Amino acid sequence: AGKYDNVIKSGLKLKGGDKKSREIGVKVAKKKKKSEQDALAEQLQASADLELQEQSELIKGATRGPTAAEKAFQLAREKRTGGRIAEAIQYTHRQRMDKL
After folding, report:
1. How far, in Å, are 56, 81, 88, 90, 97 from residue 94 at the CA level?
2. pTM exceeding the 0.70 threshold for the entire prediction
3. How far apart are CA 14 and CA 72, in angstroms?
4. How many angstroms separate the first and last alpha carbons of the chain?
5. Which DSSP helix (H) or strand (E) runs through 98?
6. Element (H, E) at 38
7. Which of 13, 18, 47, 95 is the most exposed place for a label (fewest CB within 10 A)?
């Protein structure tokens, strides 16, 4: 009897679950796992939402007007090109070559 003094005499204890599930014949509802199709559908929906958001941001960025600096640059460019065109129209090719 001395050999078995430090032996655990209680029954096995299973991890998790409540006492009702330990009873014989009682079935516990299992967690349903998402099917691959559901997961794929969710991924597609998320990517579609992200794509829509990016497109709306691009449209919003593209529709903004020019800044003051951009307007001034465009005006100066138009003046320069207008001056070059006026000078080119004023003289013929021969007159320009004689001028040089």
Report:
1. 56, 22, 12, 12, 5
2. no
3. 79
4. 127
5. helix 93-99
6. helix 36-62
7. 13
What integer pLDDT is reported at residue 87 of this predicted model? 82
> Would you say 91 and 99 are in contact if contact means Cβ atoms under 8 Å apart?
yes
**Cβ neighbours of residue 25 closer than 8 Å, sequence gap 6 or more:** none
Mean pLDDT of the chain: 81
> Nearest to residue 99, comparing CAs of 84, 82, 85, 87?
87
Q: How many helices (H) and strands (E) does the chain have?
A: 4, 0
Residue whose entry in the numeric block shows the structure tokens 């000078």: 87
Q: Which residue has the tokens 């080119």?
A: 88
* Token duo for residue 62: 């593209």
Checking phi first, is residue 67 left (phi over 0); if not, alpha (psi -120 to 50) or beta? beta
